[in-house]
Fold this sequence. Notes:
Elements: E1 2-10, H1 15-30, E2 35-42, E3 49-56, H2 59-66, H3 72-77, E4 78-87
Antiparallel strand pairs: 1-3, 1-4, 2-3
Amino acid sequence: MIIVAGSIQVEAEDRAAFLESSAEAVRLARSTSGCHDFAVSADPIENGRANVFELWEDRESLEAFRGSGPDDDLGSMIVQATVREFEVS
Length: 89
């Protein structure tokens, strides 16, 4: 299993648009073979923070979905990202 978890910082005024734009990636990931969970959610305390959690069956499934990362619209909103991958057995 691969766990991807962390946080993404955006400007506080951009967070709603960031989350809305992330919704399609969440839908696509959850329908992808090997994805057990995928979430991008608003942090309840920090207005400019979105929390990320992904759970994948294996690295192959993750990489098949991942592609080249966020599109230009999402990427341009990101101020800082602290997201890590963990492999668990």
